[in-house]
Fold this sequence. Notes:
Layout: H1 6-14, H2 17-46, H3 54-66, H4 70-80, E1 83-87, E2 92-94, E3 107-108, E4 115-120, E5 123-130, E6 133-139, H5 146-150, H6 152-174, H7 177-189, H8 204-250, H9 257-284, E7 290-293, H10 294-304, E8 312-315, E9 322-325, H11 327-344, E10 352-358, E11 362-368, H12 395-398, H13 403-413, E12 417-423, E13 427-435
Parallel strand pairs: 8-10
Antiparallel strand pairs: 1-2, 1-6, 3-4, 4-5, 5-6, 7-9, 10-11, 11-13, 12-13
Amino acid sequence: MIRSHPMSKITRLFSSVFVRLLLVCLAAWLLITVAVSTLFVGYRILAGLPYNPLIDHYFAYLVTDIAGQPERAGQIAARLGIEIDYQGPEHRWSTGGTPPPDRLRFFQTPDNDTLSFAFRHDVKYFRYQHPSGSYLFTLPEQHSDGWLQSHLHLLALIIIALTFAGAYFLIRRILAPISSLHEATRKVAKGDLNHRVDIAGTSELAKLADSFNDMVRQLREMISAKEQLLRDVSHELRSPLTRIKVLLELVEPPDRVDQIRRDIKELEDLVSAILESARQFHAVDSLRMEDIDLGDLVAEVVARQEEPAKNVVLEKPAHPISAGIDRRLFTRVVDNLLTNALLHGQPATAPIRIGLAQGNGYVELTITDSGPGIREQDLPHLMEPFYQADKSRSREKAGFGLGLSLCKTVVAAHGGELILTSRPGQGTTALVRLPGNTHIGENT
């Protein structure tokens, strides 16, 4: 039995993100507690004179010694370095030239109704209520501890701010690999399956990076295997089809040979559609973006329809509407959507209408027909590969169910969305919404 070294266990423990964050929070809490406790104790020590019961007796002796005599009060004030103000029913005098502030908030000392105290910045005020009048003793700043005492709150805020700032930067450094993982997921989402995340160490994030890299590798292998399978199946399908066609040419055309030829033609079309779809899906990973006027692009697609284009109304806005798109792939999207409207929007009660609109940060392309529409249960599945809404339709009209799937993929690669809406008997609308004035960049 192999025993792990104690130091390796300690290393793994302190490499844990949870433990490290816990230690940072604990250290921050301890620093704040110690700082606040120290400042509070220091404040009580520096400002503790009003809480000392002996001060009551001291001021009582002072008032007795003064006995309402301004001269005697002046001598005592000069000796102690304080100021004394007196206010009685008939007399009022002061030993200093500076009058006390008008508004002072006095606090009563415990168990003594005659003495109260107040603070204003770094000056202490004591008010002694004597039967003959009220005495106010002003103790000016003590230069040895006055600054510290007057700035304790600011010092406490600075210490707390520095503590939290230190904890923030420590936690940010610990969790920095998450940014690398986030960037990696974005690149993989755009089709870069060769990207790797390099995070050293044995922490949870390093293990997560290893798992991420392993997942991307498996995805890359799965996609490669799928593409290889597609090529192999297509090749295997074409070989017997070719042999059958050769044999048909060598025999006398009996009954139903024409039907066999049509079936072979359908199989060939299916194989070609699968291969073409695979090539287009692969091209989505290498978009070549450029600013295109969508109105001009749609007009070109409509013009290619020749005779059917007479049943299409293009509502071009007065100002150009541009978007960053791959011209070749997006032309295929518009062509597929328009062809679907022309084929499946029959019989129609009105021409097919194509509209362009621009909003705050997006552009929209709509293709609307007035045909029989699509059943509600079929609508969510139309963009799935090989899905046929009407199983009774012929291949010449219905195709193989790959066009809308490809359109959805291309639009999503441009950062947009394809939405189909329809009601039976009221026609169908295909809405393409793309980011407007957005350069996705060129990926080659």
